[in-house]
Design goal:
Strand content: 15-25%
Strand order of the largest sheet: 2-1-15-14-13
Helix content: 25-40%
Shape: globular
Largest sheet: 5 strands, antiparallel
Length: about 450
């Protein structure tokens, strides 16, 4: 009996022991955080760090963790949470209703995977080709093509496709040099090319802002991908470009109509891809287009319209109403410098992701060390690290999950703003800081 009593007594001491260890580590980690912030590569920069231990249910390091930072692509973390929570198991490509005469009425939902090179769209194409004519509802998109604060002069860069209700081909045009001539995909855009495509040695392609007047000049490129303008019309008064592109792809008549919301029901949902197949790509390569369209799909699901600002306001008042500090959140991807989050905000969202969806699922969606946007970094941590990067000029962020050498799971968020110079020494300092946590906790 005495031995059994002593055994139970020792078990009761375990939480107290963990608490003492945690207190000791808090001091050590706080010292390491201050040393990291004083690194020469971070001179005059702002640094925020938060580390949370779910085993003892407490923060073990907070360094300016309640201060606001521009998070860059760490903004995709709340977007990912919203998509996992509200989009179900598979994406809704569109909602539809059959009409007399074997016609089809379609309400687009913002699904970015249709005809995208990363996904198969054969099932969707087969379904649409069964019908004679398509009638496309065009009044459920209440969003700007670019997010607030986006750098408009990046409009030709492949990381900034426009947002719209009916994405096709990722809203991108691909140009490839073959036998001295530039081939265009999708071929629809050949009719919109303003200059000769003969470029024997290489080429450079450009278009004007807001237009699809693609032009070529001599250059070094053999392959190029540019966003097309979703609002640019082939002829005034004709179909919108996405509708015209859909008609050209399917070789069918597509008409645009407006319907009041009361007439949207009942419709049948047509599903395209598993949700996680989209989110994995979004998080591994930090795909801005997938992030923005994911947020629009959440808006379509919850609000019956696609409006980024409305769905962000809705989420801040519901799912994220109890974040430690209320963020200033303006887009789904983090392209905007208007976004402001604190490290503690990200810890709370990471905690929600773990509690609601499980760490095993997150290990698939978040990139691990030396993979995705973590490639060439964190090799020594490998599958002990699952995290989302964030970067733009003067901004570097990393938030996610770290398994220590003792197999303890930690949640962390490191946000750095306003550093000068190359990002490489900042990344290396961040890597060293995380590796020291891995070894010591």
């Amino acid at each position: 009996m005495i031995g059994r009593y002593v055994g139970w007594k020792n078990l009761l001491l375990i939480p107290f022991y963990l608490f003492l260890v945690s207190c000791s580590m808090q001091k050590k980690l706080s010292r390491s955080a201050r040393e990291f912030a004083k690194n020469p590569s971070l001179q005059n920069a702002q640094v925020g760090i938060s580390i949370y231990d779910p085993a003892v249910n407490q923060f073990i390091c907070n360094y300016q963790a309640d201060q606001y930072f521009v998070p860059a692509s760490n903004t995709k973390i709340p977007t990912c949470y919203a998509a996992m929570k509200y989009l179900g198991d598979s994406l809704v490509a569109f909602r539809y209703r059959t009409l007399p005469g074997n016609d089809l009425l379609i309400i687009p939902s913002g699904d970015p995977t249709f005809l995208h090179p990363d996904f198969s769209s054969e099932a969707t194409i087969r379904f649409l080709k069964k019908y004679n004519q398509l009638f496309l509802v065009n009044n459920n998109f209440h969003n700007q093509r670019y997010g607030p604060g986006w750098s408009w002069d990046d409009y030709q860069d492949d990381y900034m496709p426009e947002n719209n209700a009916l994405p096709l081909y990722g809203n991108m045009v691909t140009f490839t040099l073959e036998k001295g001539r530039v081939k265009v995909h999708p071929k629809y855009f050949e009719k919109l090319i303003a200059t000769e495509t003969k470029q024997p040695a290489g080429f450079r392609v450009a278009r004007s802002f807001g237009l699809n007047d693609f032009s070529f000049s001599p250059g070094a490129d053999q392959h190029a991908t540019l966003p097309f303008s979703t609002g640019n019309l082939l002829n005034p008064g004709s179909l919108s470009l996405p509708a015209a592109l859909l008609a050209d792809t399917l070789q069918k008549t597509v008409s645009q109509i407006s319907l009041p919301y009361s007439q949207y029901q009942p419709f049948v949902a047509f599903h395209s891809q598993p949700v996680d197949s989209l989110l994995t790509i979004m998080m591994h390569r930090s795909d801005n287009f997938f992030a923005e369209q994911s947020l629009l799909m959440v808006s379509d699901t919850l609000l019956d319209e696609m409006d980024s600002q409305k769905i962000i306001d809705h989420l801040l008042q519901s799912s994220f109403r109890d974040l430690p500090q209320q963020p200033h959140w303006v887009d789904g991807s983090g392209l905007s410098r208007y976004n402001l989050f604190t490290p503690q905000d990200f810890i709370r969202i990471l905690q929600r992701l773990q509690q609601e969806f499980g760490i095993q699922r997150l290990k698939t969606i978040f990139p691990s060390g030396d993979s995705g946007t973590l490639k060439t970094f964190y090799k020594a941590l490998g599958e002990n690290l699952y995290a989302k990067t964030g970067s733009m000029t003067g901004v570097l962020a990393l938030s996610g999950y770290l398994y220590t050498k003792k197999k303890r799971l930690l949640l962390f968020s490191i946000l750095v703003n306003n550093y000068r110079g190359s990002s490489k020494p900042v990344r290396e300092s961040m890597e060293g800081f995380l590796f020291s946590i891995f070894n010591s906790y």
